[in-house]
Structure formats: structure tokens, C-alpha cells
Design goal:
By secondary structure, the chain is mainly beta. Helix content is 0%, strand content 45%. The strands form 2 sheets. Strands 2, 4, 5, 6, 9, 10 and 11 form a 7-stranded mixed sheet that branches. A 4-stranded antiparallel sheet has the order 1-3-8-7, with no helix packed on it. The chain is globular, with a radius of gyration of 13 Å.
Length: 127
């Protein structure tokens, strides 16, 4: 059973940056899985932020984060990252990583496609 752990959240001022990390905590390799980042703010629906295919060759982003966020993976370290720049107060949310075993080199920001979820890490953007 793939178990995911997120880290890197925190409090940052508007315009600042954070890098989130997602790793497998139980020795299973994340390298064969498409991986996505999702977020949920209080009172709002779950939102797909970004995803990356198992080989890193395909990425997708929500329109709200395009040009500011970058997803990447280091399969040697069994870790997926979300670099978040130019953060805005509306980026405040609990951020989750998730994974599924894909058919081909694809990914999706649709939550229903994902089988494994982390517990989340809080990101707060405030002055």
C-alpha cells in the first residue's frame, strides 16, 4: 500500500515562495505512479493544482497557478516537488499529494482518478 507524506508547507508573505515535497513513507517507489497536487481551502471544493506523469514527461496545471507553480520529480530520490512562486493569499489551503498507477505516460488533475493520498500540508499566504 503506497503511503504518501507531504512536507514543506508553512506561512509565507504574498509574493513569496515555498517548495512542497511528496515522498513515499513505506519503501514503495513512487516512480511508477502519476502524481498530482491538490488543495482545499475552508469552505471551498477540492481543486486539482498540478500533475506529473510517472516519467516526468507530461505535466498539467490549473489555470490559477500557471506560470507561478512548477511540478517536478526526482525519481532517484523517489520524490515529487511543487515549487510555488509569487504566492497569493488565495493560494492559502491544505495541499495534498496523490498518486495512481497510470495507463501510459499520462496524468490528470481529476481527483477521482487517484488511489493514494497523503495527509496534507498547510500553506498560508498572509502578510
Amino acid at each position: 500500500q503506497l503511503q504518501l507524506v507531504e512536507s514543506g508547507g508553512g506561512l509565507v508573505q504574498p509574493g513569496g515562495s515555498l517548495r512542497l515535497s511528496c515522498a513515499s513513507s513505506d519503501g514503495f517507489t513512487l516512480n511508477y505512479y502519476a502524481t498530482g497536487w491538490f488543495r482545499q481551502a475552508p469552505g471551498k471544493e477540492h481543486e486539482g493544482v498540478s500533475c506529473i506523469s510517472s516519467d516526468g514527461g507530461t505535466t498539467n496545471y490549473a489555470d490559477s497557478v500557471k506560470g507561478r507553480f512548477t511540478i517536478s520529480r526526482d525519481n532517484a530520490k523517489n520524490t515529487v516537488y511543487l515549487q510555488m512562486n509569487s504566492l497569493k493569499p488565495e493560494d492559502t489551503a491544505n495541499y495534498y499529494c496523490a498518486a495512481f498507477f497510470p495507463r501510459g505516460r499520462t496524468c490528470t488533475t481529476t481527483p477521482d482518478s487517484y488511489d493514494y493520498w497523503g495527509q496534507g500540508t498547510q500553506v498560508t499566504v498572509s502578510s
